[in-house]
Automatic annotation (TrEMBL), chains A, B, C, D, E, F:
Domain Carboxymuconolactone decarboxylase-like, residue spans: 48-126
Secretion signal, residue range per the UniProt entry: none
Pfam families according to UniProt: CMD (PF02627)
Entry-linked InterPro entries: AhpD-like, AhpD_core, CMD-like
Protein name as annotated: Carboxymuconolactone decarboxylase family protein
One Gene Ontology MF term: peroxiredoxin activity
């Protein structure tokens, strides 16, 4: 099920802007595999380019957090958003970056714990302690 | 604004089960400060005890992920759930555990990026690639 | 903070459609108090009327679930949606209908538990057991 | 589709901590059926144990709300979280506890109504009436 | 997978209230096709009638926004709620009302952009500028 | 309340990257007013730049949807995400672009209607009709 066509490699080859992004994904990842997300975004080259460029800047370029930690954050957001595709693709990505079973168990436990306390806090309407305010 | 009374220290002292949890929070954290969440939960001692015991087990006990990484995951879930209190309290906790400005910038960037791609994937109804399935 | 003006009684009196709904709210509830939700909806009489009529049909008319149970379901949805106003107004309504402290503690515990398992299930991508499918 | 392996009975038998939880689930429910959620959680025995123990305490032990009411609250949260698995399993559980078609119709109507008014309130930014504040 | 039976035309013909709604849907849309949503709602005639009547009033009757714009808003809400069925049905409806590929690309871009900034704002706890407040 | 400092104009003037973005916002909007969102993002110049550049490309540059329609989609997403700040700022932006009271009433009605049917569909687990699938 999808609301758009998923582009095949043959179709991408006939569309220079799409082909350029697909080639860059392959080069950056060192793999021939292009997952369905990019094949769906190919229907709108401008969004395909902007999304891939942002993803490279945020997730691939060296930064203050290591790549595995960023994948864990990505999974946490995807779980809370209920995005099954994102959960599957980024859990696979985290495993490829070295996620152990024990770390994955921890990730689940924190996501579950945070979800529970989020709802308790919301139900109780707890006011923010002034100690947590930065604006003074 | 709150849907329940926030217990003062004096009130807690008169309720042994609440007082025991407050004392343990202070001992574990090495601080006299009890934030509003626990003061609100005090209205239901059973939930107060279960929540604090789970939080200790998940967030405080040594485990496969370091304490700062667990706080980042907690913040990510809280942002996606829209829990303002949780965001404020766990951002403060992360800073107390050494979160730098650069790491915080990264955290924001990943949360924003994941939120955008979550919605794009959902809008397009992208099917999960068989490569991401573990049950296969 | 609001994106619209909250209508005063004097303003409502000058607008027959708004005034008719306000009068019906007062008659049905047996109270002169009109909460801010209706004062905000008054800016669009068609939505004010449709919303009040639906609410009466769903929440006030006798039905298969008792009024307090319906308020608990309403609160649960409002917590999960993160609607602070709705949580405050329906928690007050539930208390007016006899919600005890012990029942409220139970409500919180179930909301928290469900939120935690919801996220665990989502993170794990658990497939629905065929035993739970009605379509056969 | 799942991000983890679903444990078979044979695999559980070889892992004492998992086997103990599975045996307790069967004893408490008086049924041999173990649904997929527990088979997925089995990958992390600590989370399996903590989750089952909390669920027993919240959903099975006698408390101030009757078992069917607690299932309705669980379904409402699961619908608002968009957890398809949870909706299917707890709707089946509610039916097993006596949910009638008329009560189910009511449940749907309240969930729909609350979802609509939640969004209207949020869109309008309605401020909480002081009458609903408990902290005074 | 569903939690209820999806009514066939033959079953609807034997239930006058359901049959009346199905006939009206066909007349209003000028098509014999009844999509699964209505076949599922048929299990509760009161909710079927109320939902169809509201949908006609909001989405079909002439109003201040044109039909295509209303479908785009509907899709945006459905994406943010993570309702896959709603996304598929309303994307099909929008296309039937003339949605072009370029407009669809724009819709996706705005939904993605809004989702990203929503989370950034929430993470930072940005206070509303007084310039945006209507209540003065 | 905020988790970060909101930059004043004086502080921005001392930071060239921040100052350049603030100057561009003023030039593009033809107004001296910089709202709090950008003052909060200023703490991380890279995210400030990327977010503003994306926003210009998506919301300001001429495209297939008119500016007011894009604001309505933005508001719909923000309501569903529960982002109060975003709702207030984009409702003000929509009004500045000509949103009438009648159009705003329509927007609310569609958001409310979609939210209600989203939850009904999710609760019932309605399967997508094959007629809505593009992948064939």
């Amino acid at each position: 099920m999808a609301t758009v066509r998923l582009w095949t490699d043959a179709e991408a080859e006939a569309a220079p802007r799409v082909q350029a992004v697909f080639a860059d994904i392959r080069a950056v990842r060192g793999s021939d595999f292009i997952n369905n997300f990019w094949r769906g975004l190919a229907n709108d080259p401008a969004t395909l380019e902007r999304t891939w460029n942002s993803l490279k800047e945020v997730m691939v370029a060296p930064s203050a957090l290591d790549p595995l930690t960023k994948e864990l954050i990505y999974i946490a957001v995807s779980v809370a958003s209920g995005c099954s595709y994102c959960i599957h693709s980024h859990t696979a990505a985290a495993r490829a970056k070295g996620l152990t079973d024990a770390q994955y168990g921890d990730l689940l436990a924190v996501i579950g714990m945070a979800s529970e306390t989020n709802r308790l806090v919301t139900a109780l309407g707890i006011p923010v302690d002034p100690e947590f305010d930065v604006t003074g």
